[in-house]
Amino acid sequence: MFQEAITSIEAPKILDKKAAALRSRMDAGPVSEVYLLKAMGDILPDVIAMAGGGLRGTLKAQELLGRGGSAYSQKGADGQIGYFFGKEDEIRFGQTGTIMDEFFRDTIHTQAVTLGGFINNQMLQGTGPSSSRSALNPELFSNYIQNLYKINAGGAAGLSGAVERNTLFDGIELGSTDAIIKAFQRYDSSFTGTEVGLQKIVK
Fold first, then answer.
1. Which of 13, 84, 172, 195 is most buried when burial is the number of CB atoms within 10 A of its CB?
2. pLDDT digits (tens, 9 = 90+) for 149-169
């Protein structure tokens, strides 16, 4: 927990230096594919850490630097452009863009499926009658959390953070499917359980 806090504080400073160096190098003239691969390979972990790490951090990094990412058109309130402004074609051209797409797709899927597994463990181990528990489908959860992020980024980030902190079901009687659904609805008011294949398991 302490290291996570330290990382979140230090990441913006480190990222600022790396992004500034990349911008300066690109403004000076064409850069090689190898240079871009190394630069983005160094920058992406810092973006993820700055955005909270884990699934929520990776989703935010994709929003910023994925295909059509907002960082490529970012301007400050004073009109000052961001380090990645206007550089999408240059950064994502060729192999670098392909590898970034693969990184986001594979990492987000793996993280989301793992998070779904965490939820199942929490539902199985929580309070309430042990003879009746619920479980979800981690693959369906992966699709659900990614789609939720597109329409409600804050809700998706809050949900993933609650799972990571093991607080999603605080105060919830886990023998009740309705109570579990209400826990999800704190972050997604339209959640019904069918999106993730939520079902009762009788031991």
1. 84
2. 999 999 999 999 999 999 999
